[in-house]
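Quarterly update from the structural biology core.
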Amino acid sequence: MAKNRPKHVRSVAQVARDRVETFHLDPATAERVRDWFATDGVEAVLDGERSVALVDRDSPDRMLKIKGAGLYGGAIRFGTVHNSRLKAPVFDFDGRMMEDVASGHDVAWLGGASFQQAVIEYRVTARMAALGIPIVPCLGYGHVEKDGRRSWFSVFDWGPGWTTVRPPEVGAEEMAEASERRSRLLVDLARRHDLIGYCWFMDTHGQGYLVKDVHPFRQADPVNMSQLSWVMQLIFGLHVPTLSAMAFARRSGWTDLPQDYQGRGFRGALADATTAEHEELRWKIIAPYMLNPPAAFDPGALHAALSRNRIASALLDICPDQYARY
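Predicted structure, tokenized:
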């Protein structure tokens, strides 16, 4: 199926140049980023609701992506929060859900990013790159200020023609294979490197897949997390992109996702995980303990519920020994 044509946009100056500050960018890159926020008419390609890829006339094979560049290529709506209503839970030592509002977008101004999103994206990208994981390079981050308000952004090395792995650009089986591949990556990062979160893939159309969107990751440690919270955080990290891919498929009118698609999103934890087991996880763990936590929370009841589901039970088993058991 033909790919969607990129939408070209031009910047509209929204702040003075001295109100743009960048971190970790080389001078030439920082200048290009400042131009986007402070100059009229800078050419870019729109990439989602709040990101643009800057066109480099001197280096046609290289672009710069700014995430938090403004709403659909226009201005950042200072004073209006995203109001995404996305749940971004974190879990205390007992496994009880709390909400990480910054990761869920809702302390970011519309068209921008939060302080947390920008910095975590940069740090986690550097960590994964050091581990040898192919990932979209995050070059740095920064902020813009207007009327006493501050909005953050992150900056990435980018390639023309790169596309997110999703329908209709890829077929149903390729989506399922990517979901299983992501599952193995997420479980490996949690077990071997104490990084728990979720991400997805960018297709470079010639140089393979690159990991993208790593701002939801957290650094796990056995002082602040137990086996219960480690498992709950990883379940959420496996669940969100699995559910998101199903939503992409529905919006694209797909009817041919493999029947085992949902289960494949959890096969990094359980080699034969099934759709039925994910559905059970959704309604016995995710809905009652992550979306609407019970008023009378009991870690013993949570542990029992996790033990009854094969996916969750497998995660309890593979959780590293340094995380305390209930």
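The chain has two domains: 8-76+111-158, 170-318.
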